[in-house]
Amino acid sequence: MSVVLDASMTLSWYFRDERDATALAALAYVGVHGALVPPLWNVEIGHTLVKAERRGRITRDQSATILASLRSLPILVESGGDSPAFPQLALARAYDLSGYDAAYLELAMRIGIPLATRDEHLATKAEQLRLRWTATHE
Predict the structure, then answer these.
(1) Domain range summary for the chain, segments of one domain joined by +
(2) Domain 3-137: top CATH class
(3) Which site in 34, 76, 95, 99 is 20 to 30 Å from 42, CA atoms measured?
(4) CA-to-CA distance for 115 and 125, rounded, in angstroms?
(5) Does 138 have pLDDT greater than 90?
(6) What is the pTM of this model?
(7) Does residue 129 contact residue 109 with C-beta atoms inside 8 Å?
(8) Which pLDDT tens digit goes with each residue over 47-56?
(9) 122 by DSSP, 3-state: which?
(10) Among 122, 111, 40, CA closest to 81
(11) Using CA atoms, how far apart are residues 115 and 4, in angstroms rounded to an integer?
């Protein structure tokens, strides 16, 4: 079984102050089972890396290393295919989510697989829908 992976979980693998047992379990799980992400994931990863560079948290070389590491993992960008136009809008309204977070939840709901996130609000909504990934999914 695969998992929908959001940027918060992904980047926790690379920032020491965010890395914990759950993050490492998610990384190991993705390494074996793969992950699906919406196109937004690429933008969020890039945005966060640039912000981290500007704040002196990482260097450009470290960003390049992170991106190379991500490219080596079985992470598939899922385009949405035949899903209705802007389904995340209805989800954002219904679950009090940002449009960004709703994109991850919509993908998990549409495909029927768990969502791995470190965002507690999003995780709570995924849990209510029985779609929250936990380390017990290993």
Answers:
(1) 3-137
(2) alpha beta
(3) 95
(4) 10
(5) no
(6) 0.90
(7) yes
(8) 999 999 999 9
(9) helix
(10) 111
(11) 5
